Amino acid sequence: MNTTYVVVAENGIDTFSMKTVTNRLGVSEGLIYKYFDTREGLLFKSFITFQRDITEHIKEETALVIDGESKDARRERIWKSYYRFLLECNYKSLFYFEYRWSYRYNEYLNMSEDGYQSYIEAIEEFSKALLGRSTMTTVDKDVINWIVENTGLYVKKALLGDIEKDEVTAHRIYQMIFFGASALTD
User: pLDDT (tens digit, 9 = 90+) per residue, 130-170?
Assistant: First the structure.
């Protein structure tokens, strides 16, 4: 899966092939088919695996309680931790958003019970962390998706060197994203 992340991050998802992965790994193409029936199966498994890593990171950050921390400061701390996590995972993050932004993402939501459950768990964790509640109204889902998608845009810009990766830039991005998110709830 790590090779899948790299190949998609470098070349895009539409040109991805099992042969590219096996060539990089120096193994026969038949070997990969022992573990994954199809190209889409490998992409899906890679996506869901990294989504679970993100969800676990959010859970860990949400579990951290800092005495005297305001609700707004907590939300900013959690979002910045998520943003830094995505930057640290660079090629996995580029893969993740490439997948989310492809037609495959909607198929993923309906692909399997495992995929749907993973999606619901991720949305609920983000909601608890960033909205302060696990209530999942349609507006909540829209807000969470707004935050995730726009964070992804800035992560991609930072990873490609179009914007700085410093704290000042992260704070500015946070303000822009949450200003937009607040407009969704008004």
Answer: 888 776 788 888 888 889 999 999 999 999 999 999 999 99
CA distance to 75, 110, 120, 184, per residue, from 177 (Å): 12, 28, 22, 11
What are the tokens at 126? Answer: 């983000």
Residue with tokens 């495992």, as numbered in its chain: 114
Are the C-beta atoms of 115 and 33 separated by less than 8 Å?
Answer: no
Residue written as token pair 């726009």: 150
- For 2-89, where are the alpha helices, taking DSSP H only? 2-11, 18-25, 29-35, 39-63, 71-88
CA 67 to the chain's CA centroid: 29
State whether residue 20 is helix, strand or coil. helix
Q: 103: which DSSP letter?
A: T
Looking at the predicted structure, is the pLDDT value of residue 186 above 60? Answer: no
Calculate the alpha carbon distances from 114 to 33, 48, 52, 108, 142 in Å: 21, 9, 11, 10, 22
Largest CA distance in the chain: 57
User: For residues 104 and 13, is the Cβ–Cβ distance under 8 A?
Assistant: yes
Q: b or e along 30-50 (b: 16 or more beta carbons within 10 Å of the residue's beta carbon)?
A: eebeeebeeeeebbbbbbbeb
